[in-house]
Amino acid sequence: MSLKRILIAVDDSPFAHRAAKIAIDLAEAVKAEIAFVHVFDAATTPAGAWGLPADRISAMSELEGKRLLKKFRDSVPEKLAGRSRVHDFLESGSAASTIVAVAKKWRADLIVMGSHGRGKVKGILMGSVSQDVLRQAPCPILVAPPKA
Q: Which of 13, 24, 72, 93 could join 98 via S-S bond, C-beta 3.0 to 4.6 A?
């Protein structure tokens, strides 16, 4: 199997930053194209809790997502960014299903994402995006553990 397209799922956690570093190093080694995907779900944010209308929360989430993607894009070494295009996907929806949809649409050869390492019980209670992506993904997944 050749890796030509690596999709990196990102959020603002240290786990995502670690996974992105691993994915960028891998992309450099195999000369792969990369894309970052960030998914926000304004529907899960209680509008009343902040006293803001839902459309305002959605706009704020999108703006924050753009800032986050720029931060990850800026972390890409120049030789990788110059050799191939670096793509950004900013999507709204359920994280796992949206990451899978982007991987299918972009025809990713590998998805890289971080894991919070909550364990079985907390994962069941709180949900696990990485577990859901593992079950649905159209390609292999590299899940970076929370600790080196």
A: 93
